[in-house]
Design brief:
40 helices; 991 residues; disordered C terminus; 5-stranded mixed beta sheet
């Protein structure tokens, strides 16, 4: 018997020990928490279920286990089960006469918010606020959770700004605290990604999704479901950014997980397969596209009564093959399914009707397509209900989806234009223009909010094709009516596509003294913007350094940038809530009217020529005090190619020296050809001698004053006598007329001359190890100007960045004669070279200039390529010149290519002498170039040597304090004389 007992002990003991171990509640709950942190939610739940079967468990242990189960069910989106577990814990606490602690109260409010139980949510959150909103409460983790819960519990339609504010505060607090679970930080990042995506800020949305992905990647296994959701969201936002390869990569990463998670017919799996098919389709991989489209149609009847994805796939295929009638039938079925699934007024139903309308249009049925698009508009804008094609929404109406509405309005405008060709009824063409203008207003409503720079670029690129169509419609109406109001409208459209980021920045300078906005808020806004620009530039710099140092610094800089961005986002939300008028001014820059342009710019013998470069054509606008004209150049691509050839051949010194006669003939041919196409019709009969040019696209690289106004057959090489436009007109440039008007506005004018001319002997620049050759003429050039204006200069080996930063804000003329370098791919890293010091690396980057205040009347960038840089469609050239404009400089002399040191010095000195004489800046430059052509050596007469210099901005003569002083002295003498005269008359009468 004893032997049997011993045997039983050895058989049962291991299981008894395991059972006892599995009921060690404290240690088991620690394991549950570890599994939760690692994202092993199902394993953790199994462990908690086992714990609840333990016989010796206490009620308070049940409370702890139930709270753990709440978190695990919540993490797997089982909100009903989560709520049941939490209420079980709270019921036990109440039965024992104990009150839930603050952590549990927060969980309860969170549970109500996640389940949409508004009444219980409001009651529970109020009891929390009594504690958490007290000034003495300092727990960032709990306060962050409170703000996240408020975000969950608020109606986003009723309180959109407040909801965003709570979310931003939550993220800011979570990132300050060291004890935040992955769940809370991840959800805050995902919610901000979703909100920015819905607002059209795709770049910022992607940045939040990427941060969420990095967070999960640091804690979870690669195949974790949360990581797959991040990849799916990133795929979607890159799709909307039209970055198809990136989108495909993320969708495929999600597919690896979902294929082992969902049945083939699950609606999520179908949606993902269709998205992958779409990406392959966009990338012209039709074989893979059809493979994934086929995956998307499995078991269609089982999917929530919604087989529209299958139908849409079939319809798209038929649509590509031209079988429009069958495609329309499929699309109409898809609409019915969506109506049944989502409702007739749901935006996804409206989106599906866009497909129907598109198929009808392709089949040639314009009227039926217009009817369908009008239905889409009515669905997406609840206040719209009419069936007339001539009705459009206004921007104060509530819109379900900006993107789907934009698609409908854009197509409707094009269709009404097509209808006009059939009906010849002007009413249809006017309706087309009204619809296109509504679409542009919608695009601007998307853009005229706080969003990332990259997203603004994205939406601006979308604006270009719409504006091109709108200008064409206005042009046709002008041809019919001869009403110049249509030219003015077309010009307004063109202005709405140009340099809007720069315009917004300059408006920001104007609005800093806006009434009713606290000075400390404006100061904080400026501090954060400057810091964000600074760290963006530092990150770009670090990305070019060696890997070992770079990785450490990049991590520090990126973390800091994220923190600053969070702070700035929250500040902007506060401004939007508390200072609505200021917010609207910040993001809704006003476009100049033609009358304002005439009154403020086109006086004193001046005219303006502006270009709009579309995909199909170039539109030329000409405006003078009495006249306004518009014409279209149809062969846009040929003109652009010619402009690029002209720039290339004019800016290559070696080619000019090696093949001088060939270079001469090529120059003459291209210079006259471009003049004929771009300017001759506008200037052939006008008498104005001063010309402002607003270039666009590749035309931004053209020195227009170097074009030839006549075809000269003389083959004898003589650049000095060629018929340059320069001979007849003083030419200046502006990014847009609206920016030109801002630069005309009266401002405090500094008048002192400050010049900077470093010596580069013995200088070596960090990271690049670059050594620069000394400039022979830069110091004499600056010394000459210093004496001319009785100013101040810094020359030699101690010309540091700090000297510039400490003196540039009070310069009237700022003269920088030094080396410069352009970074086409990374415009923030373009730079001017100063001398290295203990404090500075000697390289003044574009991102540093953005953060300076340089309200000079004139900045001379006497360095190479200062007007050259990366061309961004709709925004212009991101150059060093542009950076100084951002910094508040009203007028700039800059260069389009690498300049000859001696020629540069000669031209600059001639220009400054003319400025000193009181000439306007454009005429001063014109006369300097003409004088240079008279005195230069024959080998230095080619336009390479002088036409690189361009004047951008305000052309007014330099304001001079001495002239003001003479004026005030004269006025004083006159007033004194009048006083003496009156006094003497008074005495005579008294006598």
């Amino acid at each position: 018997m004893k032997r049997i007992t011993v045997l039983l002990f050895f058989v049962v003991a291991p299981y008894w020990g395991a059972a006892q171990s599995s009921c060690d509640i404290k240690s088991q709950l620690l394991q549950v928490e570890d599994l939760n942190i690692a994202g092993e939610f199902e394993k953790a739940l199994a462990k908690t279920d086992n714990l609840l079967t333990c016989t010796s468990i206490s009620e308070m242990e049940v409370v702890k286990i139930s709270i753990a189960q709440y978190k695990l069910h919540r993490n797997t989106l089982r909100n009903r089960k989560a709520s049941t577990a939490l209420l079980k814990a709270i019921t036990i606490l109440h039965r024992k006469g104990e009150s839930p602690d603050l952590d549990t109260k927060l969980l309860l409010a969170e549970s109500y918010a996640l389940r949409g139980d508004a009444k219980n949510f409001e009651n529970s959150i109020k009891s929390i606020e009594d504690t958490i909103l007290q000034p003495s409460f300092t727990n960032d983790y709990y306060t962050g959770r409170y703000h996240l819960i408020k975000h969950y519990g608020m109606d986003g339609d009723a309180f959109p700004v407040e909801r965003v504010s709570h979310l931003q505060k939550a993220l800011q607090l979570f990132e300050k605290s060291n004890e935040v679970p992955v769940y809370y930080l991840g959800n805050a990042l995902r919610a901000l990604g979703n909100l920015n995506r819905s607002e059209g800020d795709f770049d910022r949305s992607a940045s939040y999704y990427l941060r969420e992905l990095a967070l999960y990647g640091a804690h979870y296994k690669p195949e974790h479901f949360n990581i797959s959701i991040c990849n799916y969201n990133l795929g979607g936002v890159y799709y909307e950014k039209l970055e198809y390869q990136k989108a495909l990569d993320h969708f495929l990463a999600a597919h690896k997980v979902w294929v082992n998670t969902y049945e083939p017919g699950n609606y999520r799996m179908r949606s993902l397969n269709e998205a992958i098919g779409d990406m392959y389709w966009e990338l012209n991989d039709m074989e893979n596209a059809l493979t994934y489209f086929n995956y998307a149609v499995t078991d269609e009847e089982a999917i929530n009564n919604d087989t529209s994805e299958h139908t849409l796939t079939q319809a798209d295929s038929l649509f590509e093959k031209g079988n429009y009638a069958t495609a329309i039938n499929y699309y109409e079925k898809a609409v019915k399914w969506r109506e049944n699934t989502y409702g007739k007024e749901h935006m996804l139903t409206g989106a599906c009707k866009n497909f129907v309308a598109r198929a009808l249009r392709s089949s040639g049925d314009i009227r039926a397509s217009l009817d369908e698009y009008q239905e889409v508009i009515n669905i997406l804008v609840a206040e719209m209900s009419g069936t007339s094609w001539y009705e459009n929404p206004t921007m104060d109406m509530k819109i379900q989806s900006y993107q789907y509405l934009l698609e409908a309005l854009t197509a409707k405008g094009e269709l009404l234009k097509e209808l006009y060709t059939e009906t010849n009824d002007r009413k249809d063409l006017e309706a087309a223009l009204n619809t296109q203008e509504t679409a542009i207003q919608l695009l601007e409503k998307i853009k005229n909010n706080y969003m990332s720079e990259a997203s603004r670029f994205f939406w601006t690129s979308h604006t270009i094709s719409l504006i091109e169509e709108s200008i064409d419609t206005a042009s046709k109406l002008y041809e019919i009516t001869n009403d110049t109001g249509y030219i003015e409208k077309a010009f307004n459209f063109s202005e709405r596509s140009k340099s809007l980021l720069l315009l917004a920045s300059l408006y920001d300078h104007e609005n800093t003294a806006f009434a009713n906005v606290p000075a400390e808020l404006l100061a904080e806004e400026k501090r954060l913007k400057n810091a964000i620009t600074e760290y963006s530039g530092r990150i770009k710099s670090e990305e070019k350094r060696c890997a070992q140092v770079r990785d450490k610094m990049l991590k520090l800089y990126k973390d800091k940038l994220q923190s600053l961005q969070n702070e700035y986002d929250l500040l902007v939300t506060t401004i939007k809530t508390d200072h609505k008028e200021y917010y609207e001014l910040k993001y809704d820059s006003q476009i100049a009217s033609v009358q304002e342009i005439r009154d403020q710019l086109l006086t004193d013998n001046t005219s303006l020529t502006a270009y709009f470069s579309g995909k199909k054509s170039i539109v030329v606008f000409y405006i003078s005090e009495e006249d306004i004209r518009m014409r279209t150049i149809e062969n846009a691509s040929e003109v652009f190619e010619e402009a690029i050839r002209f720039f290339s051949e004019t800016s290559e010194q070696q080619q000019i020296q090696n093949r001088p006669q060939e270079a001469y003939e090529n120059y003459k041919r291209l210079a006259f050809s471009l003049y004929k196409k771009l300017l001759q019709p506008e200037l052939i009969s006008e008498k104005q001698k001063r010309l402002i040019i607003i270039p666009d696209g590749n035309l931004s690289y053209l020195p227009f004053e170097a074009l030839l106004t006549e075809d000269t057959g003389n083959s004898k090489r003589d650049y000095s006598t060629l018929p340059y436009l320069l001979n007849d007109r003083a030419v200046s440039y502006v990014p847009s007329a609206s920016i030109a008007l801002l630069n005309q506005a009266p401002k405090k004018a500094f008048t002192k001359y400050f010049g900077f001319a470093p010596s580069y002997e013995g200088q070596e620049y960090t990271d690049t190890r670059k050594k620069l050759a000394n400039l022979r003429y830069n110091q004499p050039e600056v010394i000459f100007a210093t004496e001319l204006f009785n100013g101040k200069s810094w020359t030699g080996s101690r010309v540091t960045e700090d000297l510039l930063k400490n003196n540039s804000s009070t310069a009237g003329i700022l003269h920088l004669a030094m080396h410069g370098e352009v970074e086409d791919e990374h415009p923030l890293l373009s730079k001017l070279y100063f001398n290295v010091s203990e404090e500075d690396d000697g390289m003044l980057h574009t991102y540093e200039i953005y953060n300076m205040m340089i309200p000079a009347q004139l900045v001379l960038l006497s360095a190479c390529n200062t007007a050259k840089g990366k061309l961004i469609r709709g925004e212009g050239i991101l150059s060093l010149e542009r950076a100084f404009q951002y910094a508040g400089s009203r007028s700039l002399l800059s260069t389009l290519w690498t300049v000859d040191d001696e020629a540069s010095s000669q031209l600059t000195q001639l220009f400054l002498e003319n400025i000193k004489e009181g000439k306007t800046k454009d005429i001063a430059l014109q006369h300097a170039k003409l004088e240079y052509l008279k005195i230069a050596k024959p080998e230095a007469l080619h336009p390479f040597y002088w036409s690189s210099f361009k004047l951008t901005g305000n052309t007014k003569a330099l304001e001079n304090n001495s002239k003001k002083a003479y004026f005030y002295i004269a006025m004083g003498i006159i007033l004194l004389g009048l006083g003496i005269f009156r006094y003497s008359r008074k005495n005579k009468k008294a006598a």
